[in-house]
Design goal:
By secondary structure, the chain is an alpha+beta fold. Helix content is about 40%, strand content about 10%. Strands 1-3-2 form a three-stranded antiparallel beta sheet.
Length: about 130
């Protein structure tokens, strides 16, 4: 199991230069490496489902006790997946008594959406020509 340190996009130095939109400027090596860590966290079906469950929850948060039964996985495995999402900056958590409640970090998902969004009014160049 890897114990790599994950830097959360949008935190620390270089916030404004972290990640330009993919369709307006090429990413440099460092930007690509940091962005890849977040996409790696999203690259697992269980983590993607967990993020979706957390994000779609009425009230904006959900108890781990409500997440675990939705999967045919052990509680430690679910906790590991949640930890990776938290390290990537996609979710945050708060302990209340014996339970942990999770919520989406909308700034991160907004940032990812912004990175992947084509600037308004700028069509993609189609070197092969537009097919009808």
């Amino acid at each position: 199991m890897s114990k790599q340190e994950v830097t959360v996009l949008g935190q620390g130095d270089g916030v404004d230069v972290c990640c330009p939109r993919l369709l307006t400027a090429p990413l440099d090596e460092g930007q690509a490496a940091e962005l890849a860590k977040v996409f790696k966290a999203l690259g697992d079906p269980v983590r993607l489902r967990l993020l979706s469950m957390i994000a779609s929850q009425a009230g904006g948060e959900i108890c781990v006790c409500d997440l675990t039964p939705a999967f045919d996985l052990s509680q430690p495995t679910i906790s590991h997946h949640l930890k990776l999402l938290r390290q990537a900056g996609l979710i945050d958590s708060e302990r209340r008594g014996t339970w942990v409640y999770y919520r989406l970090v909308p700034e991160m998902t907004d940032r990812l959406a912004g990175i992947l969004t084509r600037p308004a009014g700028r069509p993609l160049d189609d070197p092969a020509g537009a097919a009808s």
